[in-house]
Amino acid sequence: MPTWRLPDTAVAPLHKKARAERWEVPVATFALALERSARKAFATPPETRELERYAASLHLEDLALTCACADGHEGAWEHFVREHRPVLYRAADAIDPTGASRELADALYGELFGLVDRGGQRRSLFEYFHGRSSVSTWLRAVLAQRHVDRTRSSRRFEPLPADDASELAKPATQHQAHNTRYIELMREAVTAAVGRLAPKDRLRLGCYYSQELTLAQIGSALGEHEATVSRNLARARREIRSDVERQLRDQKHMSSSQIDECFAVVVDDVGSLDVADLLGSAAGDHALAAGQDRQRKDTAGKRSKERPEGASA
Amino acid sequence: VPERDRDQSIDQWLGHVLSKNARTAAQGVCLDGETIAAWTAGSLRADEAAAVERHVADCDQCQALMAAFVRTTPVAVPATESAWQRWRLGWIVPLATAATAAGIWIALPQRTPAPVSTDQALQTAARESQSVPAAPAAPPVAVEQFSRSSPRLPEAAPAPTMSEARKRADENDFAALSDRRVPAASAPLERAEQARAAAEAAGAGDAANRPAQQFAARLSIAPVEIVAPGGSARWRIINGQSVEWSTSADQRWTPATIDSSSLLSTGMAPSMSVCWIVGRGGAVYLTTDGMRFGRLPFPEVVDLVSVTATDDRTATVASADGRSWVTADRGRSWTLRTAN
Prior knowledge:
The complex is a heterodimer of chains A (about 325) and B (about 350). Chain A has about 325 residues and is mainly α. Chain A is about 65% helix and about 0% strand. The interface between A and B is large, with 91 and 77 residues.
């Protein structure tokens, strides 16, 4: 019957391969770490052969090191601090060049060493390292997670952005009413077209337009060359455009000139896509406030960074 | 509406629909750090990776986590190279090594210098740096070596050994990045010349003279310094990522504001408040107040390795593959310059 635990005969060579004796990690402790890792990776216990294959594919030396650190082995800690603290600090500086993330990195050390839980047991963050990446990659991911959590919690205290859609219901003039309708149609069509793309295409678009990653960064995250990212972004955008044109023509029964107007309502104002800008001041100051962040992004970031193939300069 | 304008319209709509404030309806459990590390390391099974991809595609929170993680990742050397490129590089390295060795042998046929310590080498270089005349007012010198003007060179980090660098790269460590951030193709001729001259001065011809070689190696990873005409202002690129500036009035290095996601290679300052800086991925930055750099649009994603500028509007940039572009309107439009 499948189980999470590897047979002892399979653990021993992995223990040796991990050079776990360097840090005096007992075989039983190492076997437990392997079991935790398998529980994370599989929804149900796999066959023994698959479990062995999985365990052999792990970053075993790093797993042994983290086992030793979690147990408070002094030599392992020294090694860990010497090898990985610079990585952590550089990652912190890369996330926030002002140095604000350094305190997050320092706080991580406390968690890595271990916090005493309610039962008086010391629990180390290392228990959540499962060897599926190198320990330095894992550290950077954990730091990124802390950074995002902190940013998110600080935003809770900021006023929520106004709902652009509700503001659209307040046109002041006939011209603005005209624009409002076109904006609604375009928003609807673009959203539907994006939803019809493959998940990977949506992911690339989100990384590029929302997260403002560069082509190279997107490529490194998705394991693609930046030229491939560029091509795929350009293709996705072409697909969205034809999808939008088709929706306006076939579903909304718009004429060619009306479709032109739909596209032009945005092109008229190439500076930003803020609803307040498009509809005039009558559209409300709330929408302007909601768009400030986006406008800053549009003007300072996205417009100036490298563009996917075929993108208009 | 012209085709191009429709594309532009879609571009703006995507920025809007996919903005950070957009509400998304992702299904499934959000990712934790361990999973995203495993995903980007390619360690997940195909079904796991597909599930993660589906979730992240629609979850702005997980996208934000992914983006923060990616920003901590060293810039990777392009993963794929054509066979032609490999063939070309394979020949260039031994050829360049042979040419350099022949040049040194011809220039120094009888020279047998005594071993020189690192301190002596640095002192020699410092003396030489004092004797280097100041940059002429016009035309300005595009790039000067850090060691020419700064007495802080001895504090520069020592160059890592190859095995160390490889080990660090394997670990995705940023330390290796500092080496890659000064791509060989982007090193201006002046820097290479100076490094060679310093190595010669310190007795680099002697194979046993390791301190001198280390000194030469240090020069090759030193910051790039950009000097305005008359030395009225200076900028320096640190590790290809950040920029500092200093004016002749206060003589202090102050961090300049530059939102750089690309590696910066070199720059030029046509006046004391205007500086152009270029880098990887078509990165072109300009400051007109000396302090704040803004990125200018550029039509192609190429590695830019040189820039010459006459003012804050007109500049010529060149890419690693030998092409050059000219702008006369502060980067609003670029014209590809033909070979002739």
